Structures are given as structure tokens and as C-alpha cells.
Amino acid sequence: MNIDLQEIIHAREEADCLADAPAVEAALDRMAEEITARLQHSNPLVYTVMNGGLIFAGRLLPRLPFPLETAYLHATRYGLSTHGTLLDWRVRPTQDLRGRSVLVLDDILDEGHTLAAVLDHLRGEGAREVLSAVLVHKQHERKAFPGMRADFTGLDIADRYLFGCGMDYKGYWRNAPGIYAVKGL
Ligand SMILES: O=P(O)(O)OC[C@H]1O[C@H](OP(=O)(O)OP(=O)(O)O)[C@H](O)[C@@H]1O
Ligand SMILES: Nc1nc2[nH]cnc2c(=O)[nH]1
């Protein structure tokens, strides 16, 4: 696909900032405290859901001052689109999960189908407990299950199409330091 870089730059320039970099830092600090209190004695295996979870994990993990192991899996439902479809598993977990405490990190819980499928899969592999942490919880009533939330949430954000902090706009701006909403979406 040919990407119009001018359009990508324009989208960033005219986007609404819904959480600036200091707000994200504060959310990460609070989440790290909550996760530490819950998991510091559990020797957890921490899964990052690629690609969106990459930046969140890279910023959260150094804030966790206890022993843990890391791994990744890759599941995608949106591709380069702003609408989700069927979940496409690209890399499934390969570690032995029996008896383990597992924490899943992802950038956003939107409709929640991605997280629900990932959690189901990990529980099916015999983990003792599977918890989830997302940087962003999108505020709407279209969740996979009514009232669905991750165990740990950084920020509740309005029902717009978001980018930044790992979330992409047409594959770009995962590197943007705050959380932005595309104009008109
Ligand atoms: O709650 P849902 O509606 O299921 O959406 C959330 C998922 O969507 C994004 O992934 P995406 O499919 O865009 O792939 P990516 O991580 O490569 O950006 C995001 O990283 C979450 O994994
Ligand atoms: N980039 C991005 N990915 C998503 N996946 C689910 N919701 C969103 C969103 O608002 N932005």
C-alpha cells in the first residue's frame, strides 16, 4: 500500500491531545505501584501483546522492582484499519505456563476481543492466574463482555480513534509521546 506521508504528518498536527506525556508518566507510575503490590512475590511471566503493547511494556517494565520474566505474543485485529475484524494470531505463546502467574500487557482495551482471546488462550495453557494491564481503557458500552475491564488500567479515554504510546495511525505514530485522537474519528 502507498502511504501518503504528508497525510500522516497532517493527522498528527491536527489531532486532539487527550493525555499529554506527563499524564502518561503519572499513569505508568501508579500502575507500577499497583502491579508491584499484587505480583511482587509471584515470579510472574509478563507477556507483551505486539505490536501495540511494545511502548507500554518498554516504559512499564523498568518501573517494576521485582523478579519477573518477559515474553511476547502477536495478535492483531485491526491491521492498518481503524475498524477491528477477526483476530489474526501471528505468534502464539510457546512458554510452559503451567502453575505460573501471568500478566498480559497491551496498549488499549477497546472492544476487548483481543484481550479476551489472549486471556482465554493463556488460561487454557494451564496458568495459575492470568492478569491483564492496559495503558488505555476506551470508554464505551461495546465491550466483548458488559463491564469488561483489565485488572490494571492506566487511563480511561474517550471513544475516539487513538494513536500514540504504542497505538498506530495507519502504522505510524506509535512513537508519539502522549495519547491523541484523530480529527473526525
Ligand atoms: O479491544 P480491541 O477492540 O480488540 O482492540 C485492542 C487491540 O487493538 C490493537 O491492536 P491491533 O489489532 O491494531 O494490532 P497492533 O497491536 O499491531 O496495532 C491494540 O494493540 C489491541 O491489541
Ligand atoms: N491505534 C489504535 N488501535 C486500536 N485498537 C483498538 N482501538 C484502537 C484505537 O483507538 N487506536
From TrEMBL:
GO terms classed as biological process: GMP salvage; guanine salvage; hypoxanthine metabolic process; IMP salvage
GO cellular component, one term: cytosol
Catalytic activity reported: IMP + diphosphate = hypoxanthine + 5-phospho-alpha-D-ribose 1-diphosphate; GMP + diphosphate = guanine + 5-phospho-alpha-D-ribose 1-diphosphate
GO molecular function: guanine phosphoribosyltransferase activity; hypoxanthine phosphoribosyltransferase activity; magnesium ion binding
Enzyme class: transferase
Coiled coil: none
Annotated Phosphoribosyltransferase domain residues: 17-143
Keywords assigned by UniProt, alphabetized: Glycosyltransferase, Transferase
Superkingdom: Bacteria
UniProt name for this protein: Hypoxanthine-guanine phosphoribosyltransferase
Source organism per UniProt: Pseudothauera nasutitermitis
Lineage, highest ranks first: Bacteria, Pseudomonadati, Pseudomonadota, Betaproteobacteria, Rhodocyclales
